[in-house]
Amino acid sequence: MQTHAAPTPPAHAPRGGGARFGILSWALWDWGSASFNAVIITFVFTPYLTKGVAASEEAGSSALGWSMAAAGLVIALVAPAVGTRADSGGRHRMWLGVHTGIVVLSMLGLFFVRDSPEYLWLGLLLIAVGSVFFEFAEVSYNGIMVRITEPANVGRVSGFGWGMGYVGGLVLLVLLLVLVIQPEVGILGASDDGGLRFRIVAALSAVWFAIFALPVLFTAPGPESAPSSDENPIRAFISDYAALVRRLVRMWKDEHQTLRFFIASAVFRDGLAAIFAFAGVLAAGSYGFSAAEIIVLGVAANVAAGAGAMIAGLFDDRVGPKPVIVAGLIVILLGGLPILLSDERPVFWVCALVLSFCVGPVQASSRSFLARITPAERAGENFGLYATTGRAVSFLGPAMFALSISVFGFQRAGVLGILLVLLAGLLLIITVRPEGPRTALRG
Q1: What single string gives the DSSP state of each residue in 171-214?
Q2: Distance from C-alpha of 441 to C-alpha of 411, rounded to nearest angstrom
Q3: How far apart are CA 413 and CA 286, in angstroms?
Q4: Which of 135, 181, 326, 405 is the most buried (most CB within 10 A)?
Q5: Pairwise CA distance, residues 219 & 227, whole Å
Q6: Residue pLDDT, tens place only, 204-262
Q7: Is the pLDDT of residue 16 over 60?
Q8: Where are the chain's structural domains?
Q9: Any idea which of 81-95, 101-115, 396-410, 416-430 has the lowest mean pLDDT?
């Protein structure tokens, strides 16, 4: 096993209590961002759009799918250049603030989406815009992680951030359930009239995100150089894309392992996303869960995933991210098989929690893996590519899920399609070798 001398921490990395405070401030963004992922995208607002706003659930679901596909295409095309732009002078903090602000504004705009079909496209547009800029914000957010960590603690920090996101999501879901969703008249007069209950949920979620996003915008490392005041934005964008093409050519020639990691992680991350995307569908269709029970399942899944991410971060720093990723994928594959064979609720509950517990570690260690092999000056660029490759195959999980159901004729068979995607990702990541600590790449 190859060993490396302990690298000297970057000059901009805070030490001691300052480092801990900086990391906590950074992780609070993850805590707040769960308001968009868990509340708006997964459990509350998009179901309101497809059931309460659209003329029919089928029409609403189809429209939502197309709008999210369009958002994914924009992300795939633009995210790498966004990352390169953030790398220019180390301006991750500034771009994180800009992109987070746009996401918050899109969430606030959802307050005006009433429960009538003519408001459907407004809701879809706002969610698509929020999704695009959320992904852009994550590029800069991950770039900041590279600047506030060292190779010795990047696994723990990445796991801590993922864990904070899951815990923040479950805390907000519980608060909204108790204060807004369940009462006949919730806080701020929330009721079913005009979809007000869900519109208030969107506004409160936006405020939640804004509050917890503020600390990192004050504590993250600032720009390393002043931006050029006479730079033409269009020319700069074209220049960034040209640099991206040169980067891909260079990776093909000299950084095979990094390129292979991008491909492998794109495949298994799509499988992981499909687990959460179709968990509620399976719970309702194959196991008869009510809407309230699905929300409880979501809360439990967030708890399990958050705990798994935090615990696995310790192993990540001791044995490296790749063993954590491989072990997590193997457990997920084994844990998903009983769902194919049993329609008993206890079996589904146990499997769902096992899968959730392992999803967090695989996600966190995937980010840690990239952070370890990424030079700080290329953080935005590489995490932009990370976002792009993650979207590039986003059709795999849903397509395999649907295809498996069509072939075998029952809903639980869709799990087989997801497991096949994860198996492909596992086989691909096994062949990837880390290229050494990121400090060695700075040249």
Answers
A1: HHHHHHIIIIISSSS-GGG--SGGGHHHHHHHHHHHHHHHHHHH
A2: 47
A3: 10
A4: 135
A5: 20
A6: 999 999 999 999 999 887 665 555 555 566 676 677 677 667 777 877 777 777 888 88
A7: no
A8: 18-222+233-441
A9: 81-95
Between CA 153 and CA 157 the distance in angstroms is: 6
pLDDT single digits (tens) 315-366: 877 888 889 999 999 999 999 999 988 888 999 999 999 998 998 888 888 8
DSSP letter (8 states) at residue 342? -
Contact 348, 339 (CB under 8 A): yes
pLDDT: is 103 or 256 the higher one? 103
CA distance 309 to 82: 27
Task: Give me 165's structure tokens.
Answer: 């996101």
Q: Token pair for residue 414? A: 């869709």
Q: What is the rounded distance in angstroms from the CA atom of residue 67 to the CA atom of residue 72?
A: 9
* Residue indicated by tokens 């799509």: 270
Q: Note the pTM of the prediction, 2 decimals.
A: 0.71
Confidence grade of residue 427 (pLDDT, cut at 50, 70, 90): very high
Identify which of 439, 392, 442 has the alpha carbon closest to the alpha carbon of residue 154: 439
Q: How far is CA 78 from the centre of its chain?
A: 17
Q: Which of 59-63, 193-197, 303-307 has the lowest mean pLDDT?
A: 59-63
Give yes or no for a contact between 67 and 128, defined as CB atoms under 8 angstroms apart.
Answer: yes
Distances (CA, A) of 443 to 144, 317, 375, 376, 440: 20, 24, 9, 11, 7
Among 95, 124, 91, which residue's Cα sits nearest to residue 110? 124
Question: What residues contact residue 198 under an 8 Å CB cut-off, 6+ apart?
Answer: 44, 45, 48, 52, 115
Spatial contact of 61 and 227, defined as CB atoms under 8 Å apart: no
Look up the CATH number of domain 18-222+233-441: 1.20.1250.20
What is the distance between the terminal CA atoms of the chain, rounded to a whole angstrom? 23
Q: Tell me how far apart the alpha carbons of residues 360 and 101 are, in angstroms, rounded to a whole number.
A: 26
